[in-house]
Amino acid sequence: MDVADSVLDLVGNTPLVRLGRIGALLPCDLIAKLETTNPGGSVKDRPAVAMIDAAERDGLLVPGSTIVEPTSGNTGAGLALVAAQRGYRCIFVMSDKMSEEKAALLRAYGAEVVVCPTAVPPEHPDSYYSTAERLVRETPNAFRPDQYSNAANPAEHERSTGPEIWRQTEGRITHFVAGIGTGGTITGVGRYLKAQNPTVQVIGADPAGSVYSGGSGRPYLVEGVGEDFWPTTYDPAVVDRVVEVTDAESFAMARRVTREEGLLIGGSGGTAVHAAFAVAEELEAGAVVVTLIPDSGRNYLSKIFDDQWMLDFGFLRGADGPCAGDVLAARDPSLPALVLITPEEPARRAIGMMRELGISQLVVSVTTELPLAAKEVSGVVGELELMDRAFGDASVLDRPLKEIMGPPMPMVGVGEPVSALVSQLDRAASVLVLEGGHPVGVLTRTDVLSFLAARSPG
Hints:
The chain is an alpha/beta fold. Helix content is 34%, strand content 17%.
């Protein structure tokens, strides 16, 4: 009988499919490698099995061991498959930007999930890297595969994924495009393909803000791709070019591929296809562009495939009629749309800024560098609240804002209707407007009233 002995025997040998609808007008072939068909649903099944195999050979994993790993979800699912087969306990650490579907999936496999904040640097004690290290120290017989430095990660892609692509394209591949996360996939596949044909171009797709495309690693919304540090599993010498892709471009392409090709792909798949499409537009007939789809969109149904979520973060415009963006555009152009101050600044500095700029509140954020990410907003400080506090205790003026600021103001997407603004302003003095996941302005009741008055006849 044609029956696999275990689910682990089903990892790999994933198919290629031509993206014939979205690539209909391209001069060359645009082909997707569907890693979604792995039993755990993602490309991460491959290194997960390889890393555990290597750890068992080296005696690092023994009966009763616990696997501890920081993950965006997919590596965790792959490791959980192996753990279920081989009897290991799992603890996975995830950042709070990851979809709840991913955390629920890991728990379904019997794993424990620890969630950590996104908007902190890797060295912060609450970061998911630092939390994983602490859990390794505190857990008896713990083993951390560390996909970011484990040589078995890129080696597995050089052993399996690269040869599959070469064989499936009969050696005709000219360009390979993949998102860069740990760097294991693009490094391993790239090494194999270049060993077969040095002229094959290897292109990385990277979220705007990630280090690979020149960012500092500041928060972005697409999951499972990009980084805020340089993993040793990434070999930049293998990569010929990196294409920066915004959250908006990633999500739009994921939705387009899903609706036009019938392939339900995730945001990182959208990142890869967007970059591959941009590369393919530059090429001539005869080129063969293969892009790797790392996971399915099933993990993102509550996010990028949820119109309300897309509206809330400013990626879509709602029904016909005026929206938050229209109100923002109608504000007095002499007033700044968004003014930022860090939590460490004293209240006295905030008062000076508000007086100088003629505004009544400031957004408190971990950075003042634009574009700002929604996760980087810490709170809000207002003129009236500061005056009340200072009247009772003048020493407040010299205290840092993090001790006296209020919670972050409500957020609405730039495309949400004015009615959504009014609803939020019933409960708060101001609202933060998001476009493409980035705060772009603050609106108050006065702004909405002025906008409505200007639209009314007479």
